[in-house]
Amino acid sequence: MPRTLPSHLIALSLSLLFVGTASAATPDGELLLGSLNCTACHSASPTVRGRLAPNLAPRLGKDGARLTPHWVRAWLTDPQAAKPGTAMPDALHALPAAERTEAIEALTHFVISLQPADIAQPAAYSSSAVSAGRELFHTVGCVACHAPQDAPVHSKEKINLASLVPGSAPLGDLARKFTVADLAAFLRDPVKSRQSGRMPSLRLTEGESRAIATYLLRAQVPVGATVKLPGLTYEYFEPGFTKLADLEKASAPKATGVADAPTLKVALRPGSYGLRFRGTITIPKDGEYTFYTESDDGSALFLNEKRLVDNDGIHPPQSREGKVTLKAGEHSFGLDYFDGGGGTELKVSWKGPGIGKQPIPASVFSHDGQPMRPLGDAPFAVDPAKAARGKELFAGLGCAGCHQTGPDRVASTLKAPAFNLLKELNGGCLAATSTKAAPKFLLNDAERQALRTTLAAKDALNTALEPKAHVARTLTQLNCVACHQRDGKGGPAAGRAEYFSPAIEADLGDEGRIPPHLTGVGNKLRSDWLERTLWKGGAVRPYMATRMPQFGEANVKHLVADFAAVDALASTVPSPAEDPVLAKQGHKLAGTGGLSCVACHNFAGKPSLGVPALDLTTVSERLNWDWFRRYLLNPQVLRPGTRMPPFWPDGKAANRDILGGDTEKQVAALWAFLAKGKQAELPPGLITGKLELVATNEALIYRNFIEGAGPRAIGVGLPEKVNFAFDANELRLALIWQGPFIDAARHRTGRGTGYEPPLGYSVVKWTPGPAFALLDSPGASWPTETGRSTTGQFRGYTLDAQQRPAFRYTFGDVTVEDFSEAIASAADTGLRRTLTLRTAKPATGLHFRAAVGAKIEAKGGNTFLVDDKVRVKLTGAAAHIRESGGKRELLVPLEFKNGEARLVEELAW
Predict the structure, then answer these.
(1) Which domain covers residue 664, as residue numbers?
(2) What is the C-alpha to C-alpha distance for residues 631 and 633, in angstroms, rounded to an integer?
(3) What is the pLDDT of residues 190-209, one digit of tens each?
(4) Same domain assignment for residues 723 and 870
(5) Residues 68 and 178 sit within 8 Å (Cβ to Cβ)
(6) Which of 299, 502, 504, 632 has the largest count of CB atoms under 10 Å?
(7) Segment 393-436, tens digit of pLDDT
């Protein structure tokens, strides 16, 4: 007879009641009722079930994890021996030995009959995969619940592994239970088969799940000669690559394994990596074959050790092909791939005799390797008669009450009193000595008494939990407290904390490795962000190795409303109204000339100047304004121990220059700026040029390829830190921006090829197309021809005393002088552009197109707001707005007096 286990272990395998402590905690009757899924047999009202949140048994069949027959047989024979601490009862304990053996065999055949008939192919053993799996298992969050099997990867401290076993969710005999492929599939989507979310998803990739599965099943050590196995071996590398030759020179791979076919799913990170696939391809018929690779970035396909397809280099998705005549049979196959950054894509196809162009099927790939097979594996064939008998037992013993079997669910025929009719609390499942009439649970006296006490007052369970109690119950049942602290309770326990590590080298202290506390999270996070975090995979801490588990929407959806209700504040400060001028000041505050937020925080995916703290462009989509305000004013109160410095100590601003040092205005300004999210301009100082051109006392001119202004761009940087670029080919003001001017390094290094973008911020692509046109009527379309395709000609420029250019160009018989200078504005330095036009002939119908946008609003005084971004003020002629081609245009009819017209355009943004 198995030994009696502590109460915390009997509940642990599914509800994880007391993870992190080996103390004999007083059992909670309600938690045990949910953990043991008592309402599966004892039917209860929806209110009772909702309150208990029963831990549903694993699904069986195609929606469940695929199990080995010999493990199922051992599991049914003695659940506690197969997995000590499991909540699974022994439903066969009362049967005579012979009947018990027969029932176990019948049930085994029935359970296996529910699974897909195809047999999972054995995986090839890989020491590299074991190493990768070891690191992943001990860093991504598995050991928050499960006992560690090795010392922490990034710690030199000695850990007593045996001391962490009590209070851990047991894994059982995985090496007998699963193949590598089946365990990997379960790890990728555990909630599919275990609906209650006690085993959550860690959003593992295919490569990561296979690596962890290989590590956990490493007892399946292969023995003997190699055999032909399906799939291709792969090597995974993580240095930077710009060409396939770099991959050939790469050192030892970071991971190895087997893939069904060439795929990027085995990669351990989103980009910047290399892959090498090797194996054999079986050609079905003699004849000519064409092989294709479509990739972003480089790829090459090899047949019989010769490169057949060359798709090398850094490029967007592009396809290359190669033809070869082959004999039917086996041929060596290889494929190399690398990503140099940006997008990733790989498609491998073929065409041949009787085969239209299509992806190469996995069935034609193989490799030589040593197979990993479940311990005790033996041939097994389902006996229909035994499976039919097993189905009867599955219904009669009550197994069907707990386990779902797919669309054709078996109905339980076990008769048990309804939950509200339970009166005999010393018999049945709660009897001190097991009875023939009930399944045998491994309960100790304290647990039985806790269940009796709760059932004696079961009418109270017909009342839904209040939000505060509901939150506490869920955090306990799902073991959120193994990682998170709330109201001073929970967090990584002693011995486990060392397994929480940063994913990258970053001096962030515990904030870079320990998940954030949940105290006040309901007033901290927006409800839509809580949804994204809890069940939609939202994540903002790439520097943290531990991942936020996904428990399934049905299991955590209530937390959004419950957190908000429990953490609601009596009063909050209203969110500031949208204010572009205030946002500009927030932009300054975020930069190096303000509070230097970018010294620590990433911004719009670009790294900070120092440690890689949270990306600031996620602030407005995650945080509530009131919490943001309170946090900035006193970070230590809301996040004790944070490295975030106080910029307003005692309510006084550290920066007295911006907004006059007004604390509330500065905080509101930062919020107004960050509310733009990913559309926010990069703060000053975040991007520094390798060879930055700086205008100090006079203007600087940069003539080169400027991104957004064409190959004949003339960039102008003014000392007032406002810049613009004139397109001398299209004769137009192409770009305006603020802050740093341009980085000349690209064009002064090597061949100097390519376009260089502006170095500063608030970059605006200004009005496209020709600036001037002769319109026959008010409704005439604006021409699309520009520059040299029209009568326009660039005539150069002259410089004033401050080296500011006045561009000169002609439009037909009209000569234009185009001069821009800095002008102060409420938000930031703007531009005043003066256009002087001269002609000796009449120019009736000549118009200037001042702006084009999806939205243009008149603000009075011949001032207009374009796309809620740029304010345009015109002096010298009246402007009007018109619709054209699905957009709005701001047109200015020009009138000449004595052969001259003058127009001033002021731009503020």
Answers:
(1) 580-679
(2) 5
(3) 999 999 999 999 999 988 99
(4) yes
(5) yes
(6) 299
(7) 999 999 999 999 988 899 999 999 999 999 989 999 999 998 88
484 and 560 both lie in a single domain: yes
Instruction: Tell me whether residue 166 is in a domain.
Output: no
| pLDDT (average), residues 276-304 | 98
Nearest C-alpha neighbor of 581 from the set 858, 824, 833, 760: 824
| 765 plus 871 within the same structural domain | yes
In a domain, 169, yes or no: no
Residue 860 three-state SS: strand
The answer as to whether 797 is a domain residue is yes
Q: Which two tokens stand for residue 374?
A: 């479940």
* Same domain assignment for residues 809 and 872: yes
104 φ, ψ to 5°? -60, -45
Show the tokens assigned to 494: 């002693």
Q: Do 541 and 492 reside in the same domain of the chain? A: yes
Among 679, 711, 739, residue at a domain's last position: 679
Instruction: Decide: residue 621, CB within 10 A, 0-12 exposed, 13-18 middle, 19+ buried.
Output: middle
Amino acid letter, 730? E
Same domain, 673 and 705: no
Domain assignment present for 199: no
Domain boundary (369, 400, 422) is at: 369
527 HSE (CA, 13 A, CB side): 11
C-alpha 241/C-alpha 243 separation (Å) is 6
pLDDT at position 180? 95
* Per-residue tokens: 462: 């017909």
* Pure H helices in 178-257: 180-188, 190-193, 206-216, 244-248
Virtual CA dihedral for 784, 787, 788, 794, nearest 10 degrees?
160
Q: Please spell the DSSP secondary structure of 405-465, one letter per residue.
A: -SSSPPPP------GGG----SSGGG-SS--TTS-B----HHHHHHHHHHHHTGGGGGSPP
Q: How far apart are CA 905 and CA 891, in angstroms?
A: 12
For 588-613, what is the mean pLDDT?
94
How far apart, in whole angstroms, are the C-alpha atoms of residue 153 and residue 133? 12
Q: Let me know: does 802 contact 789? Beta carbons within 8 Å.
A: no
Q: pLDDT (tens digit, 9 = 90+) per residue, 17-62?
A: 433 333 345 789 999 999 999 999 999 999 999 999 999 999 999 9
Reported confidence tier of residue 754, pLDDT bands at 50, 70, 90: confident
Instruction: Count CB atoms within 10 A of the CB of residue 598.
Output: 25
Size of the chain in residues: 909
Q: Tell me how far apart the alpha carbons of residues 399 and 63 are, in angstroms, rounded to a whole number.
A: 17
Residue range 595-616: average pLDDT? Answer: 94
Q: What is the mean pLDDT of the chain?
A: 92
- Give 701-746 pLDDT, tens digit per residue: 999 999 999 999 999 999 999 999 999 999 999 999 998 999 998 8
Number of helices followed by number of strands (H, E) in the chain: 26, 35
* Nearest residue to 870 (alpha-carbon basis) of 781, 774, 799, 767: 767
Is 40 in contact with 401 (CB distance < 8 Å)?
Answer: yes
Residue 631 sits in a domain whose CATH number is 1.10.760.10
**Sign of the C-alpha dihedral, residues 350, 355, 357, 358?**
negative
- Cα–Cα distances in angstroms (integers) from residue 719 to residues 150, 690, 844, in the given order: 60, 20, 39
402: left (phi over 0), alpha (psi -120 to 50) or beta: alpha
Answer whether residue 758 shows pLDDT above 50. Answer: yes
Its pTM surpasses 0.70: yes
**pLDDT digit string, tens, across residues 155-189:** 777 889 999 999 899 999 999 999 999 999 999 99
Task: Give the chain's domain count.
Answer: 5
Q: Which residues pair with 814 in a beta bridge?
A: 811
Same domain, 760 and 882: yes
Mind listing the pLDDT tens digit for each residue in 819-848? Answer: 999 998 776 789 999 999 999 998 899 999
- Pair 715, 848 in one domain: yes
3-state secondary structure of 43: coil
pLDDT at 551: 98
- CATH number, domain with residue 860: 2.70.98
